[in-house]
Amino acid sequence: MLLSLGLDVDIIPTSYDESPLPGRSPIETALVHARGKAEGARPSTHLTIGADTIVDLDGRALGKPRDDDDARAMLTALGGRSHQVHTAFALRDPGGRIAVVECVSTRVRFATLDSATIEAYVASGDGRDKAGSYGIQGFAATLVERIDGDYFTVVGFPLAAFARAVARIGFRLLPRPPVPA
Fold first, then answer.
1. Rounded to whole angstroms, how far apart are CA atoms 71 and 54?
2. Beta-bridge partner residues of 90
3. Residue 177 above 80 pLDDT?
4. 3-168: what CATH class?
5. How far is 52 from 36, CA to CA, in rounded Å?
6. pTM
7. Residues linked to residue 51 through DSSP beta bridges, in sequence order
8. What is the C-alpha to C-alpha distance for residues 107 and 146, in angstroms, rounded to an integer?
9. Contacts of residue 98, Cβ cutoff 8 Å, sequence gap at least 6
10. How confident is the model over 106-140, as pLDDT tens digits?
11. Catalytic residue positions?
12. Furthest-apart CA pair in the chain: how many Å?
């Protein structure tokens, strides 16, 4: 998604442990994880971004599924209901200071899901590495009745909020000119 803004991006793996945080709300958990990921990346002379997405069903955080049974249970719980998706991001400036930690939330309503649809989606493997066991940008878009809020938050990174945040700390995003044919 950041490439779509014309940014040059280096992905820096960290050893940050994004395990559940008992006693913290889903929003707090996303904020803590985003900050931890930004702090855990190796020092850079560029802006460093850490992000985390959590699906929130009635105040219960649904992270990435442990296995297919967990994915099945999550999708069953989400079917025919509304939930929120919280994506937090943290920006570490080139000096190493965490300059922004912010969370954007979007409400998603799933259609009623029958067991055959759930089984087929789980078998596809598409939701194995995604909070709440689904990725709205793929086949799971057919499971959604509506969203209220920023689509990109549900995909996993709120681009518009990010652009506003980088501007507040002195960076400027500009569209790239077209490449001559």
1. 14
2. 50, 101
3. no
4. alpha beta
5. 10
6. 0.92
7. 89
8. 8
9. 35, 38, 39, 90, 91, 92
10. 999 999 999 999 999 999 999 999 999 999 999 99
11. 52
12. 56
